[in-house]
Amino acid sequence: MTRLTRPDLDALPAYIPGRNPADLARELGLPDAVKLASNEVPYGPLPGVTEAIVAAAAGVDRYPDPGVVQLREALAQRYEIDPDRIVTGCGSASLCELLARSTTLPGDQIMYAWRSFEMYPILTITTGATAVPIPNTPEHEHDLDAMADAVTDRTRLIFVCNPNNPTGTAIRHAALERFLDRVPESVLVVIDEAYREFVTDPEVPDALKSFIDRPNVAVVRTFSKAWGLAGLRVGWLVAPPEVVTAVRKVITPFSTNSVGQAAALAALNATDEMRRRVALVLAERDRVLKAVRELVPGVPDSQANFIWLPLGDQAIDFARACESRAVIVRAFAGHGVRVTIGTPEENDAFLAVAADALS
Ligand SMILES: Cc1ncc(COP(=O)(O)O)c(C=O)c1O
């Protein structure tokens, strides 16, 4: 039989987005369900964002600014980076993919810790590269020594997810510096800081401050999490000039839409409120961690807006038990369950189910 699609995709697990709470609520016959599965911040768009979106709506008959000049300038000023080294895109997930497409040829290797962000294996395969997943340590952290040891002359790209999704663990400055010193300059290291705004450990480095001037380091950030714009898909990267040039060649034109550009600019103007909301999440992170540690052994500290329950083979059953009580969490079969920190009421709903299902 002839086929229309690539055979190597057959073995590829599809990306599983968090379940839609409205669907679950309908299924259960309830007015609503709680979604703690996609690491969003639960407090709505930041002040000024909705107004910026409405204003931008009047111009959607035109293509957006392809250079994303205003937003890149605002980011450059805030983070003290050359705007020419910034590229924005349709979510940071797409930028990770573009970095892979810009650096690897079929047969080259892309390395990442595992478990980590589930897009890394998917984008590796679709790029035609070979995946080199390096198991996390028993403490659910990147095994940076094993990763450095596994670099070969085919390695072109390494993803370092800091803090790590889904385990919430974070790499400290000295360890990351030692790792970067060991990686040859011919390998691009992408430090994915999607959750940077939730980091409270002062020893976890801000890669934009600490490592961005290295010749083989790129940093990826997003407006989807702390900045409350997940629905508009705005991410950005900072990379060495040569990598920026390559990414600009492979990116789909106009992929940062005009409404997203306006909303991201407005969000940047609401930084104090972003920080206030992050502080609410962090207080809840402490509370939820303390409570789940009474129920599940070995829950690691989190530097992100979610926590990791290392439930192993119980993961799927636990997630089902949560869904049956209208709480959506994210299970990773055989590994564990990731639970986003929500509002205090949402977290209480989760803790009540967890206490029943696990004690
Ligand atoms: C580590 C990490 N990187 C990148 C992303 C992608 O975010 P977005 O494409 O919404 O910017 C996510 C989203 O969950 C993530 O967890």
Features:
binds pyridoxal-5'-phosphate, 12 strands, 2 domains, 7-stranded mixed β-sheet, Aspartate Aminotransferase, domain 1, 359 residues, Aspartate Aminotransferase, domain 2, globular, 3-stranded antiparallel β-sheet, alpha/beta
Layout of SSEs?
Blueprint (H helix, E strand, L loop, with lengths): L20 H8 L5 E2 L13 H9 L11 H11 L6 E4 L1 H13 L5 E6 L4 H9 L2 E6 L8 H6 L5 E7 L11 H10 L5 E5 L14 H4 L6 E6 L12 E4 L2 H10 L7 H11 L2 H23 L12 E4 L5 H10 L2 E2 L1 E3 L3 E5 L3 H15 L1
Parallel strand pairs: 1-10, 3-4, 3-5, 5-6, 6-7
Antiparallel strand pairs: 2-8, 7-8, 9-12, 11-12
Helix pairs in contact: 2-10, 3-10, 4-5, 4-9, 11-13
The structure holds pyridoxal-5'-phosphate (PLP).
The site of pyridoxal-5'-phosphate has 13 residues, from helix 4.
